[in-house]
Amino acid sequence: MQIDTDPTQPMDRIGYYLKQIDANNALLLKISQKGLDVFIEDELVFNAGCFLLQRSIAGCINLGIHIITTHDFQTPESYDAIFDTLASREVIPLQLADRLKGLVAIRSQLVNLDPELDTLTVFNAIRHELVSILAFEKHILNWLRPAI
Predict the structure, then answer these.
(1) Who has the most CB within 10 Å: 25, 27, 44, 70?
(2) In 35-118, where does DSSP find H-type helix?
(3) How many domains is the chain partitioned into structurally?
(4) What is the pLDDT of residue 6?
């Protein structure tokens, strides 16, 4: 049974972002299991990986902004500052904030089609940093648990 959510409602919006991040991460996991050679050689796999990684990171950004605005935290001046704000409010650990800021930098390069961004960096982010995104979700849910 699927539960309908209304993304205009604060708690439903959190569920919406989490569902989107999880769906993207499930596909990214499949891509990472194909290995680096397939990622490099198959243009469709490469482009799907870039797009899905960008969306997962954007989901974390959106979820962070949502937490910040609904709890009246000071508005950050940049996307990576979102995670500093959440760390300063003890929503997430500082070390996790630093890893997420690294992902935000990769997302920025993906969005801007930065020619300096290399394939190995993208693949390593997919292979090794999905755990950071999962940890982010876990910390958000644990922090919100008293409110749920």
Answers:
(1) 25
(2) 36-41, 43-70, 79-88, 94-111
(3) 1
(4) 47
What's the domain range around 31? Answer: 10-147
- Residues with Cβ within 8 Å of 82's Cβ and at least 6 positions away in sequence, in order, are 61, 64, 65, 68, 76
Q: How many helices (H) and strands (E) does the chain have?
A: 7, 0
Task: Inform me whether the pLDDT recorded for 1 exceeds 50.
Answer: no
Q: Residue 5 domain-assigned?
A: no
**CA 2 – CA 106 distance, rounded (Å):** 33
In a domain, 38, yes or no: yes
Select from 89, 87, 88 the least CA-distant residue to 135.
Answer: 87
Give the pLDDT of residue 9: 56
Whether residue 148 is predicted with pLDDT greater than 60 in this model: the reply is no
Assigned domain for 36 exists: yes
- Please give the pLDDT value at position 88: 97
